[in-house]
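re: the backbone from monday

yeah here it is again, tokenized this time
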């Protein structure tokens, strides 16, 4: 299996970096081929601007989606972006690894998504009709590939529980899981989340590392998050509203987009 890890932490000697070492060791032990995009080490450019589109004339107005689509089709996107796209196409499994900062991924990783997910590559693909609304949310270029998050956070696990002050971790990660990964077609695995990392001693890290090794060993066997596919009949097209009476009583919010016993 080919595995791409996109690593977004400014300190390679951090606990997050130590978890990367654990993941790499276990992946290699299992015989997988691995590439790592260490965004800080690469000095990754995080902002989308005119420099991303070499074919854009100085007098042209920058419309990011349209220009992204045009230059992707013309193979004229910048070399750094094209290299990351090739890694994504090569990979069978993609792991995004990062610390949770202010309830989101670091800006450098969001910038990787903004620039690499070109129109025509990760979105804007497929037909739009009365029965389909593009190849997305379970379909698309990344269909058939698996994806997982490795996340570290300073907060307690209880802080990120259903009644925790920070909100449920699954809700906080929903925009990444559902929007960044499921949207272009990835099969999304439950995340590996390490809590209270600033209070981790050697004994606690040993347990954490064992848990991560087990997740790595079971990448192909772990049941994915059961998101509803857009074009499989659960949504009204083109409004993209979930059809009535598919959810269990009382279900609302992000959980509506999970398959359940009723629908």
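seq for it, each position gets an aa:
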């Amino acid at each position: 299996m080919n595995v791409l890890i996109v690593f977004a932490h400014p300190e390679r000697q951090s606990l997050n970096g130590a978890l990367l070492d654990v993941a790499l060791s276990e992946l290699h032990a299992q015989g997988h081929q691995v590439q790592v995009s260490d965004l800080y080490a690469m000095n990754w450019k995080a902002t989308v601007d005119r420099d991303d589109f070499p074919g854009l004339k100085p007098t042209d107005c920058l419309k990011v989606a349209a220009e992204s689509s045009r230059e992707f089709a013309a193979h004229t996107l910048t070399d750094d972006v094209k290299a990351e796209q090739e890694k994504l196409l090569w990979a069978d499994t993609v792991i995004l690894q990062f610390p949770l900062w202010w309830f989101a991924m670091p800006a450098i990783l969001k910038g990787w998504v903004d620039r690499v997910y070109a129109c025509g590559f990760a979105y804007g693909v497929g037909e739009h009709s009365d029965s389909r609304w593009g190849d997305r949310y379970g379909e698309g270029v990344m269909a058939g590939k698996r994806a997982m998050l490795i996340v570290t956070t300073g907060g307690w696990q209880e802080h990120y529980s259903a009644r925790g002050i920070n909100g449920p971790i699954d809700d906080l990660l929903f925009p990444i899981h559902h929007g960044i990964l499921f949207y272009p077609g990835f099969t999304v695995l439950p995340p590996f989340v390490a809590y209270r990392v600033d209070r981790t001693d050697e004994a606690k890290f040993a347990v954490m590392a064992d848990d991560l090794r087990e997740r790595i060993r079971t990448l192909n066997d772990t049941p994915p998050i059961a998101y509803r596919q857009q074009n499989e009949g659960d949504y009204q097209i083109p409004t993209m509203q979930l059809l009535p009476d598919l959810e269990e009583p009382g279900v609302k919010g992000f959980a509506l987009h999970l398959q359940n016993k009723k629908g």
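Helices lie at 15-29, 64-73, 79-90, 107-116, 169-182, 202-217, 230-234. The radius of gyration is 19 Å.
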